[in-house]
Amino acid sequence: MKYVSAADDKVSLIQRHFVGLIGKRVVGYEIPQHWNDDKNQWEDFMDYPLILNFGENSIETSVSVSWQLAEDLAIESDRVLPFNSFFALRWICEKNDVLDEAVGRVLKNAYLASDSYPPLGNKKESLTHLLLKFEDDSVLDIGFFKFETGFSFELKKAFCSSIQCAPLAH
Question: What's the whole-model pTM score?
Answer without folding.
Answer: 0.85
